[in-house]
Amino acid sequence: MPKIVDHDERRELIVDATWRLIERGGFERATMREIAAEAGFAHGALQRYFPNKESLLAAAFVRAHTRTNVRAGAALPTLRGLAALRELCLEIMPIDRERVQESRVVVAFWDHAVQDEELWNAHRENALHWRAQMGQFLREARDDGELVASVDDQIVIDQLTAMNAGLQIMCLLMPETTTRERLLAQLDAFLDTLRVPASVV
């Protein structure tokens, strides 16, 4: 009886191997042959699933964002307003080993995305999704009387997007400045500038 091959499982194993190599030495230094060996496959078998490194990097990137979105999807339904906005940022920010690992993949992806339209579109689609969520949470916060009147939603979304991206870079370059405690303090200090003081509520 011929062996049944689970192609989705094999793709996941290959992406797993790619993540490990990115964490150990970066995506640029890993060859397709090394990725195949790390995954336990022959080089030719790898190419059946990913014809080139760009397609493999795209799959690794999609997984990073999928993991973030799954975590957010589990936490956000019970939250709204600034609490939901804070939670979304925490799922993106590199506050633990899992999220730092995701940052390594995302940062490796960015360099390729600026030169490849397909990769650029993959990044843009997810970034727009997060920005839309931020906008929704800010509208909820305004409806609930949480926001100071002067808050410009678009500026806040731009600031949080830049903050999250910058922290993903800094956790790799200067990890001592991106401890969990410092990241939480930075995020909470920013959100406090948006919030109506308790004495006014």
How would you summarize this macromolecular structure in one to three sentences?
The protein is an all-alpha fold and 201 residues long. It is 73% helix and 0% strand.
Structure in words:
- This protein has helices at residues 7-25, 32-39, 43-49, 53-75, 81-92, 97-113, 117-143, 153-173, 180-192.
- It is mainly α.
- The protein folds into two domains: 1-51, Homeodomain-like (Arc Repressor Mutant, subunit A, Orthogonal Bundle); 62-192, Tetracycline Repressor, domain 2, CATH 1.10.357.
- Helix 6 packs across helix 7 and helix 7 (117-143) crosses helix 8 (153-173).
- It is elongated, with a radius of gyration of 20 Å.
- Residues 8-68 form the HTH tetR-type domain.
- It holds the Pfam family TetR_C_6.
- One of its GO terms (molecular function) is DNA-binding transcription factor activity.
- Keywords: DNA-binding, Repressor, Transcription, Transcription regulation.
Principal-axes geometry comes out as: elongated
Number of helices: 9
In which range does the helix fraction lie? over 70%
Radius of gyration: 20 Å
Termini separation: 71 Å
Quick one: CATH class of the largest domain?
Mainly Alpha
CATH second-level architecture of the largest domain: Orthogonal Bundle
CATH structural fold name of the largest domain:
Tetracycline Repressor, domain 2
How much strand?
under 5%
Domain count: the total is 2
Q: Mean pLDDT, rounded to whole units? A: 89
What name goes with the CATH superfamily of the largest domain? Tetracycline Repressor, domain 2
Number of E strands: 0
The largest sheet, given as strand count, sense and whether it forms a barrel, is:
none
Structural class: mainly alpha
What string gives the helices and strands in order?
A: HHHHHHHHH
Low-confidence parts: none
Protein name: HTH tetR-type domain-containing protein
Keywords: DNA-binding, Repressor, Transcription, Transcription regulation
InterPro entries: BetI_C, Homeodomain-like_sf, HTH-type_TetR-like_transc_reg, HTH_TetR, Tet_transcr_reg_TetR-rel_C_sf
GO molecular function: DNA-binding transcription factor activity; transcription cis-regulatory region binding
